[in-house]
Amino acid sequence: MKKTYIFIASILVFLGCSLDANNPNNLLEEQLDVTAFSPMVNGLEAITVRAYGNILAPYSVASDEMIWIGSRDAWQQLNFGNVDNINNEFVDAAFFFITEARFWADDVIARGEEFSNSNAFSDKNRTDLARAYWYGATTYMVIADMFDDFVIGSRKTEAAPPVGPGNMGSLYDTAISYLNKAIALNAGLTAELKATKARAEFSKVLWSKTNPVNTASPLVGSSSAATLAAEALSVLGDEFSVNLVTSGSAPETVGGLDIAGEVNDRLEMRLSDTYVISSDLKRPDAVGDGDPATTISMLDPIDNIPDPALYKNVVNFTAPGLYPQYPIVSGREMHLIIAENALATGDNATFTSHINKLRALDGLTPYSGQVDAKDLLHHSRRVNLFLQGRRISDHYRFASPSEYWISTSPAITSPGTFLPITISEIQSNPNIN
């Protein structure tokens, strides 16, 4: 009765109030101008970070890089290779974030292009627009790398049809077009943008190797990617890394199911025995002692020692706990792109040169034919691109399935299967059957 009385009294007070209020803080979208652009781009950065960390979790546990140890069966199903389940709760949760990042990137870029016609558009705005293009390109690449199909909506409540599995490679074209526009701005980020474009050009050819899977000819030949990679290396050096950065000062950029939280904090998954030593079957051993031998189980195929490149990536991911940095493109990847293009085109000298530049970064013995070149390339990608969203494609094209995939899983029975459009989008979009 008391609750009823309070409710009725509240209604009476409410009815006695006027709803005709003048809010000086009311701002319509149509009123946005160039002064709002920097905050918009900063917001885009934040949701791009959140989207990437959250989609990287289901992608990585579906590979051999991580193993499920927690209580949530949907993680285990991904670990088993059941990657195409539209009802998987963790892929579905990440789908919201990656869709948001894609939409906001396109929207911010469109507004930035409009603002660029203003006399008030400054050099800082130009740099911000280049950043927006980069975030958009990154999101489009990640979607094409990780999904079998996707919906690229037009505006807010307008339901768009799926891209279609056969058209997902076109998302790399969108990424490349954004990067071309960013480079044309000459806003001071040219080398980083060229490095990202090298990844996009390479990834587009790689996509064709898994759609359908081509194990007979798995190597990616892309002279345009190799040229861009060399240009980036000449400016940025061998050890550069362009990262998405998380921070405890901005916890909302992390999201609820990001890879760092699930692995380094909640222990739903851990890094797998294929890569690390984990005596307690929870966390890698001795990540802070500087010695790969106490942490790393995967051996370099030539020196037969725990791989130091892998050790660096394990430390970079685990030591920061909840707030690691996520590499999107790096100098190491540039060497891998050049080396693979050379191997694909029969240029063994260039392959050897760039594999050895990569090996020199970790003090490893130069390659001179001790092992099969393709096997060395495969290994080099595993350790240098660890936890960077590349592994499942390499599982498929190199005919190297995860040891955790079960025989009835789509990853085994239908190689080339990636993440699906999930149930939340299916139920809300009339264009999806």
The CATH class of the largest domain, by name, is Mainly Alpha
Q: What shape does the CA trace take?
A: globular
Largest sheet: 2 strands, antiparallel
Low-confidence stretches: 1-20
Strand order of the largest sheet: 1-3
Structural class: mainly alpha
Q: Name the average pLDDT.
A: 93
Give me the strand/helix succession: HHEHHHHHHEHEHEHHHHHH
End-to-end separation: 50 Å
Per CATH, the architecture of the largest domain is Alpha Horseshoe
Helix content: 40-55%
Q: What proportion of the residues form beta strands (DSSP E)?
A: under 5%
What's the β-strand tally?
4
Task: Note down, in words, how this protein is organized.
This protein is mostly helical and 433 residues long. It folds into two domains: 36-218 and 417-428, Alpha Horseshoe (Serine Threonine Protein Phosphatase 5, Tetratricopeptide repeat), CATH 1.25.40.390; 251-400, Serine Threonine Protein Phosphatase 5, Tetratricopeptide repeat, CATH 1.25.40. It has helices at 2-15, 37-61, 73-79, 89-115, 123-146, 170-184, 190-210, 223-236, 259-265, 308-318, 331-344, 348-360, 373-384, 391-397, 410-413, 423-428; strands at residues 66-68, 241-245, 269-271, 325-330. The longest helix is centred in the N-terminal third of the chain and has 27 residues, at 89-115. It starts with a helix and ends in a 5-residue tail after the last helix.
